[in-house]
Amino acid sequence: MSSSEQMSEQTLVRVVAKLTIPFILVMGVYVILHGELGPGGGFQGGVILAAGLILYGLVFGADELRQRIPTVVLDSCMALGALIYAGTGLACLFAGGTFLDYGMLMPESAGDGEALGMTLVEYGVGITVASVMTTIYLMISERRTTLRRGET
Amino acid sequence: MLDEILTLDVFLLILVAATAVAVIQVRSLFSATILSGIYSLLMAVVWTNMHALDVAFTEAAVGAGISTILLLGALVLTGRFAKKESPIHVPGLLLCGLTGAMLIYGTLDMPKFGDPSAPIHNLRVPGMIRQDIGKHPSAAPRVQQAKHEADPSGHHHPQDDYNGHVPNTVTTLLAAYRGYDTMFETTVIFVAGLSLLLLLRRRREGEPGVPVSSPDQRQPKQERLS
C-alpha cells in the first residue's frame, strides 16, 4: 500500500477529502431518502455513498477504511438490503395482497401504502448497492491473498 | 430558425463521439480511463438535455464515478500502456457498422421525440397514473380523495394528488410497475458481492487449505543481505 500511504501524506488531498466526504455521504443518504420525490433513488444514492467511502479509502488507505467499517458490517449490509426488499414484498403478501402489492400495506389509503412500500424498497436497494460497491473496491485494493498471523 | 436544443444535442454528441474515438486511439490506459469518465459525464449532460434526469444521475454516479474508480483500481494491478495493435480491425468495424445501421433502422418507426400524440402518452401513461396497469384484481382499491393517513388531522389528498402516490414517475415504474425486475436487479448485485467474497476474500493463514508463510519467505533477499 505504498502509493496510498504516499497519498495520505499530501496535506492538500487529505484536507480536501476530509472536507468533502461528509457532504458526499449526506448527499448519498439524501438521494436514497428522497428517491420517491425527486430524481435518483436507491441505486444512485447507494453509489454516491459508496463513492464517498471509496474516496476515504483512496486517500487514507484501504486498511484504514476496513478498520472504520468492519467487514462484518459491510457483509451483513449486502444481505440486509436484499432482505428489506424481499421482506417488503412478503409483508404485502401477508397483508392479503400479492407479492410487492404495496397498496396492501395500508389498505384504507392504498396510495400512502404505495409510497411507504416504495420508500422501504429504495432503502433496501441503497443499502445493498452501497455495501457491494465498497466491497468491490476493498477487494480490488488488496495486494495479498492471505492474512498473516496477527493481522485483522 | 435554429433549434437551440438540437444545436446543443449535436454539439454534445460530436464531443461524445470524439471522446469515444480518443478512448480507442490513446495507448496510455490511464488516459483511456479518464476519457471514459469524461464520456459518461458528457452522456449525463445529453440525458439532462432530454429531461431524463434519473438516467443522467445514474450515468454520472456510475459511469463517471464508480466505474472510473474501479478501472483505476484495476489499472494499478496491470500495466500502464496498451499493447500496440493496428487501429482498424475490418471485421469488427463491419459488425459494428451493421449493428449501428440496424439500430438506426429500428428507430425509424418510433414517434418523434416529445410528440404528445405518441401511443405511450395516450394508451399507457393514463393507466399508469391511475395505477391500474398490471394490478391484480385483488389489489387494494385506489380511492380518489382518500384521507391522508400520515396526517393526524385527517385532511384529504388534494385533487391533483392521486391518493398520495409517489410523485417521481420513474420510481413508480421501477419499484411498483417493474417491482420484480428491480428486486432481481438488487439480487444480482447482491450475488455479485457474494461471489466476490467467496473468490477474493483474504483467508487467514493456518486455516484449512491455507499454507502458513514463514518469515524468511516474506523478504528473502533483504534478510540474507543483512
Question: In words, what does this structure look like?
Answer:
The complex is a heterodimer of chains A (152) and B (226). By secondary structure, chain A is an all-alpha fold. Chain A is elongated, with a radius of gyration of 19 Å. Chain A has one domain. The mean pLDDT of chain A is 85. In chain A, helix 2 runs antiparallel to helix 3, helix 3 packs across helix 4 and helix 3 packs parallel to helix 6. Chain A is 73% helix and 1% strand. With 226 residues, chain B is mainly α. Chain B has 2 domains: 110 residues, NADH-ubiquinone/plastoquinone oxidoreductase chain 6, subunit NuoJ (Four Helix Bundle (Hemerythrin (Met), subunit A)), CATH 1.20.120.1200; 61 residues, no CATH class. Chain B contains 9 helices and 1 strand; from the N terminus they run H-H-H-H-H-H-H-E-H-H. Chain B starts with a helix and ends with a helix. The C terminus of chain B is likely disordered. The chains are: A mainly alpha (152), B mainly alpha (226). The interface between A and B is large, with 68 and 67 residues.
Rg of chain A over CA atoms, rounded to whole Å, is 19 Å
SS elements, strand count of chain B: 1
Unreliable spans of chain A:
none
Taken in chain order, the helices and strands of chain A follow as HHHHHHE
Biggest β-sheet strands, sense, barrel of chain A: none
Structural class of chain B: mainly alpha
Number of helices of chain A: 6
Mean pLDDT of chain B: 80
Question: Uncertain regions of chain B: pLDDT < 50 for 5+ in a row?
Answer: 220-226
